[in-house]
Write a structure and sequence with these properties.
The chain has about 425 residues and is of the alpha/beta class. The protein folds into 2 domains: about 5-195, NAD(P)-binding Rossmann-like Domain (Rossmann fold); about 205-425, Rossmann fold, CATH 3.40.50. The protein has 17 helices and 15 strands. Helix 1 crosses helix 3 (about 50-60) and helix 5 (about 95-105) packs parallel to helix 6 (about 125-135).
């Protein structure tokens, strides 16, 4: 008889994992409080735009029992996997969804059950918060049930590093837990899996990974502000530095940091360290720099318009792309939304177009979006935008100013057409 897996939280992490578990022969159940999401899944319709789900869910949805009622799916489970969001509200970790999920599991956890937390958490969460909630069941951790952490690793839209090909790390509170968790992940993941010495080490891995990226992006974003004043093309400098085969890793400037992980995880480490009497000055500064970038982009727009003797409040601006990264529909913590909000507060007339987010767009096509606008702002560099926005296309459509927040367009070609080009650090 196949082991019974119940995944709590059927979003960007949980639903692909559920599909993968079905493919690997597990009996799979899923719980989510979003009834609309559950209804779509029961029809085989992905509630989020994801190439893996679009391909796989229609083939396996009938084998996944999903519900927004705990009693329908949580009983009689061998392996519970928690993949609920762990946001940071006002720079403070919000563990309410995680606690709620654990309270639900505590009603149904049984002898020899394995509970794995995949949600991003700060070191100490499993042993200090999750474990006491689960033990309210009357069962004892490591003695009656097994508990551990395997931080999720998923990159929406990445066709190379798909879920089953990404190496993982894990740790449980007991050797028995390590063995069972390792056996489970080895059965679904076609990549290396490292077992660490403690759950706290596993919890720290994810926040270290994403804080590393946040800090390095902040570094190049601060360089962008500096180099703009010195008239140095930062993307060219980065290309030059990248020729060094050792001791350098390229990061690139942009409009800010988005997504659930990089924009949130540093706050988990900052908060936990503060409770232990340590202040992460470096991490806080990185967050401050990256959070400042949407306003910096608005400043670039304003100065570009001023060069054409156009006041910001009198302009009509085209915003291309709302998601936080290219070719997906995920707007979590997207700097594009912050740029839109800042411009609307200045009462700027906006045309907004994102082919992945038609409901959030106020025009239906790229041509309609750029028509009659004083300035085109490329916020999310979807591949179709990058391919279409050639110097010839922009000139043919009477573009005046292009603000390229990711420095991906043909700068020299655009300028050769007499169009004002502004990048971030370029």
């Amino acid at each position: 008889m196949p082991e019974r897996v119940c995944i709590i939280g059927l979003g960007y992490v949980g639903l692909p994992l559920a599909c993968l578990c079905v493919e690997k022969g597990f009996e799979v159940k899923g719980f989510d409080i979003d009834r609309q999401r559950i209804e779509k899944i029961t029809r085989g319709v992905p509630p989020i735009r994801d190439s893996f789900l679009e391909k796989t869910l229609p083939l396996v949805y009938e084998k996944i029992k999903v519900s927004s009622k705990q009693g329908d799916v949580l009983p009689n489970t061998d392996i519970f996997i928690v993949a609920v969001p762990t946001p940071a509200e006002k720079s403070r970790p919000d563990l309410k969804p995680l606690k709620s999920a654990c309270r639900a599991i505590s009603k149904f956890v049984s002898k020899n059950s394995l509970v794995i937390i995949e949600s991003t958490i700060y070191p100490g969460t499993v042993e200090e918060i999750v474990l006491p909630i689960l033990e309210k069941s009357g069962l004892k951790c490591s003695q009656d049930f097994l508990l551990g952490h395997c931080p999720e690793r998923i990159d929406p839209g990445n066709k190379k590093f798909v879920l089953q090909k990404i190496p993982r790390v894990l740790a449980c509170t007991s050797p028995e837990g390590n063995k069972k968790a390792l056996d489970f992940y080895r059965s679904i993941i076609d990549a290396d899996i490292m077992v660490l010495n403690s759950v706290r080490e596993a919890e720290a891995v994810k926040v270290v990974e994403n804080t590393f990226r946040d800090i390095n992006i902040a570094y190049v974003n601060e360089l962008a502000k500096s180099f703009e004043k010195m008239k140095i093309d930062l993307p060219q400098v980065i290309r030059g530095a990248s020729t060094k085969p050792f001791g350098y890793m390229p990061f690139y400037p942009g409009p800010g940091v988005g997504g659930h992980c990089i924009a949130q995880d540093p706050y988990y480490l900052i908060s936990k360290a503060r409770k232990h009497g340590f202040e992460h000055s470096f991490l806080k500064l990185a967050r401050k720099i990256n959070n400042s970038m949407p306003a910096h982009v608005v400043g670039i727009i304003e100065s570009a318009l001023a060069a054409k003797n156009i006041k910001l409040e009198d302009s009509k601006i085209c915003i291309l792309g709302l998601s936080y990264k290219p070719d997906i529909d995920d707007t979590r913590e997207s700097p594009s939304l912050k740029i839109v909000d800042l411009l609307l507060k200045k009462r700027v007339k906006l045309k907004i177009f994102d082919p992945f987010l038609p409901k959030e767009s106020n025009v239906a096509s790229l041509i309609e979006a750029i028509a009659g606008c004083n300035c085109i702002v490329l916020c999310a560099h979807h591949s179709q935008f990058v391919e279409k926005l050639s110097p010839e296309f922009l000139a043919a459509n009477n573009a005046q100013i292009i603000v390229d927040t990711h420095n991906v367009l043909d700068k020299k070609g655009i300028q050769a057409k007499g169009i004002v080009y502004k990048g971030v650090g370029a």
